[in-house]
Here is the input.
Amino acid sequence: MSSSWQAVIGLEIHVQLKTETKMFCRCRNGFGGGPNTQTCPVCLALPGALPVPNRRAIEETIKLGLALDCSIADRAVFHRKNYFYPDNPKAYQISQYDEPLCANGSLTVPMPDGPVTIGIHRAHLEEDAAKNVHVAASGRIHGATATLVDFNRCGTPLVEIVTEPDIHDAETAKRFLQLLRQTVVELGLSDAELEKGSMRFDVNVSVRPAGSDELRTRTELKNMNSFNFAAKGIEREIARQIRVYEQGGTVDQETLHFDPAHEESPPLRSKEEAQDYRYFPEPDLVPVHPAGDLVERLRGEIGELPGARIARIADTLSFYDADVLVTGGLDRLWSDVVAAGADPKEAANVLANAFVATGVAPEDVDAAELAKLVEARAEIPRAAFDEALGKVGEPGFSAAPYLEQRVVADASELDPVIDRIIEANPAQAEQYRGGKDGLIGFFVGQVMKETGGAADPRVVNERVREKLKS
Amino acid sequence: MTLDTLRLTAEEAKRLLDAKEISGAELFAAYSGREDDLNAYLLRCDDPGGDGIPIAVKDVIGTKGIRTTAGSKILESYVPVYDATVIANAKRHGLRILGKTNTDEFAMGSSTENSAFGPSRNPWDPSRVPGGSGGGSAAAVSGGLAPWALGSDTGGSIKQPAALCGHVGLRPTYGTVSRYGVVAFASSLDQVGPVAKNVRDCAFLYSIISGRDENDSTTVDVPPVELPAADDLKGIRIGVPKQMNHVEGVQPGVTEQVDKAIALAESLGAEIGECSLPLSVDYGMPCYYLVAPAEASSNLARYDGVRYGLRVDGADFREMAMRTRDAGFGDEPKRRIMIGTYALSSGYYDAYYATAQKVRTVIRREHDAVFEKFDLIVSPTSPTVAFEFGEKAADPLAMYLCDVFTIPSCLAGLPGLNVPVGLSEGLPVGIQLIGPQFAENTLFRVGHALEQAIGFDFVPERLR
Here is the structure.
């Protein structure tokens, strides 16, 4: 980015709550069934149907609001947002307008250069739309020829989180989204799976001369289904806007449909024909008055959040390690393993690499046994260590048998084996001496094989080089 | 035994059934066999069997498996897959649906002339309207086509037809009767209520349909209903709002009958005093014609041709929805959708809808103040007796003024009971008794005592 410009980025995130039932009816909430099998008069908007709010969804929204340090409204109101669209059967969405459940919060995002606090403008509860299936070759909105509607998704509780325009670069936006996702997942509110659409987000981007506090015309990037695409799209859009201004042009307020396959983001719709949603308080519902003791109970259910944990762990390890552990869901196990006596850095390395590769679930692991393995890692054969790690999640796992297997690092034990290998491979020995350094790996490998992986590879390497010199 | 369906009350019908003097089938057939020359019904049903009391149901109330049109072409083919809560309650009490009664389209009107299926006729004079929007239920009950009926009232659609057809109708306190399954017109005003030949039937039917409903978040627990028996009014304080009595626009014959009823109430022991509702009467009408159309514009938006009802095809969704709505809605819904859309539009919301909501609060408080001194208030239900077809149909404002007295209490969410008190020019005159929230039992008691004292004959003179 040209340093004379500053980007201004705001995010609008939608998260589907995984409540048992939908927001305003008793239909099962969730994926499954064939098209239009999870529907009823309410979510199909049959004449006379009325909404009844899902208590659980309200509580979960409050919980998320608390996790985002929001103030919780004493009185929250549902509004009707009116617009015609086939996926919107009532022709209004029940949403919240000027009296949302949660407002004025923040989320602190740990970054390599120190934490960045992003303001949360509001978090409110609404219902999701149905799914329009546009029948067209590309599967995208462009060029569709017919539309089918599946109402299973219609009425899924949806929390909308709107940030302040506090973000100034794509990396922060990406990390904010990742942290928010992890927060809602850990709170058990949502699966927040981008591929399934249970977490979706729009990005508003504008640029302004560095040092200015004006807010210029923004564009909206929609339909990004990965955090990396989002970062890429934001960078691309920032560059585009700077280019437009530097060429003396103006940026139009429009919505851009991000398509990673194309360099440019094609406009989806221009805001010139801005929708007038005619918001008004939903007369079929009464205002929500969250009780103080309910809010306190929900607050008590929130543990230490991932952002705080990254910050805490980064005091001991590097930011990078802390980030990997927390975002990988490994930090609780890490803490336990360290508490059981393992070296913090060594434990982080094992967890972030070898342990992740095993696919063992962190919650299945006996931390004390894993701590023993971590501590003995350098002294036991690699193969034994890997095997042990793969079984560390099994019930009743004991590290003891693996700890008995020691690495052979004694040259007097290894030398006869090395001599034998060199003798058996005179051609390779000749080539090595002739300058083919890469063959060292061949000899080390043969020795490791011969010793059943028990040899210390560093010592073997050293001894092979020594012997081939002569 | 020959049944006089014009005169038979639901209570008497129940007695005959309980005493096995008639069978359920005989009773149902007595109504279903009677020719509907009033166009009261849009659809008549076969006897579902059983020995419950038959009932007519306004066609805005959804009935499982029975076509429910709301008087509109856009729902001409619509058959609900579920029963409204009031229907479920009625069925639980064994009530049998005689048919679906005519209504102004989406309950918008005061004469049934806005029905897409032609108007109903007044049993007292078939050249006149039965009132509306619930003119079909009113004509059915007064015309001997049903012992009682369910209506719905947004701004007077139960009380005004009851007045014009000479029977009893209750608009209950907002929130006491579930709206679930009732085709919505204006959600914050719509209430289902009973239409009956006398006050005791009305109270009984109210006890059947009322109560908190888990499917309607705006419903509340309802005090137990007491069937009225007393014939005195000792200790009852009745307020007479000066803006609703002896005012311009009320026919002299109507005023005369209302005054006689008030004098009679006094002679039965009630204390009568003057009271005042200046803002409610002056601003009720304009307030109503912002709130109701605003909500209607949103409630009627779901009729887009996608899922049910009429569909007129178009090149895309937008064109299909526009064509469907143009062909499916009549003039009055279109007029109100336009008014309401405008009132909610960005830039106009504060001036119109938000202001109307504030006015509504003022109206509620003005009524609250009156009910500190009075148990109920009384006025003519309608400024006029039943009018002739076409008399007001061309002038929406004149039609809207039919509801000038019923609207303020609707905006305040208060219960109102129409009781017939006499005739003017051979046509019925009704008074409305308005009470504070949940004062239905008081209204029933006063209505019943007046009814006994007056001895009004609810059978239309030409049919006796």
In short: Residues 28 and 54 of chain B are 6 Å apart (CA to CA). Chain B has two domains: 10-278+361-463, 279-360. The first strand of chain B starts at residue 41 and ends at 44.
